[in-house]
């Protein structure tokens, strides 16, 4: 599982900041360990910490950026969009995220989530608080708000995330269809 997390962080850094950043962090990890590190070693959260230091960005912002980046990966985006017909429905089903993640990646430990909703806001509480997961989820929720075309304010508050929804149809959301283009082409012919 660590290699999968390392790979995801490495790809996030590579696609966002370039190969030079990835190589610099790999080199720093090798020096800190005192030996030559294999390709892709030295990442996990330490890789994000090193990148945050090099970029003079808060650690929390790096995790949020990674969460937003994940929503632009089409297979992940499709899995997330399958969770709700609109942004509010998506948010109300986030408590199912740990179970769904476990189906795909059994060794990945996602903190349990509790969702509470009012007319205009949704509060997502982490039952096992984890700052890294919290900020990753904030970025993921921001990315999905954009995907659905919703206007909202998202804020981390203690071990909770508060989402104030102002307009669910503020902008045109990205197109989403359960069937792939290949399948729809076959059905039409």
UniProtKB/TrEMBL annotation:
Protein name: Heme NO-binding protein
InterPro entries named among the record's database cross-references: H-NOX_domain_sf (IPR038158), Heme_NO-bd (IPR011644), NO_sig/Golgi_transp_ligand-bd (IPR024096)
Top-level taxon of origin: Bacteria
Residue ranges of domain Heme NO-binding in the record: 4-148
A GO molecular function held by the record: heme binding
Signal peptide: none
């Amino acid at each position: 599982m660590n290699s999968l997390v390392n790979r995801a962080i490495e790809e996030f850094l590579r696609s966002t900041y370039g190969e030079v950043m990835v190589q610099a962090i790999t080199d720093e990890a090798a020096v800190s360990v005192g030996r030559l590190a294999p390709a892709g070693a030295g990442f996990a959260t330490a890789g994000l910490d090193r990148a945050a230091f090099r970029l003079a960005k808060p650690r929390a912002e790096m995790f949020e950026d990674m969460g937003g980046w994940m929503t632009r990966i089409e297979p992940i985006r499709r899995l997330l969009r399958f969770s709700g017909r609109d942004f509010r429905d998506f948010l109300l089903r986030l408590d199912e995220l740990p179970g769904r993640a476990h189906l795909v990646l059994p060794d990945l430990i996602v903190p349990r989530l509790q969702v509470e909703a009012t007319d205009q806001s949704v509060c997502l509480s982490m039952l096992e608080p984890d700052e890294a997961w919290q900020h990753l989820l904030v970025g993921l929720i921001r990315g999905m708000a954009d995907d659905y075309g919703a206007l909202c304010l998202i804020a981390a508050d203690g071990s909770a995330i508060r989402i104030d929804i102002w307009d669910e149809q503020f902008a045109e959301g990205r197109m989403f269809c359960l069937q792939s283009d290949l399948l729809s082409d076959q059905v039409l012919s």
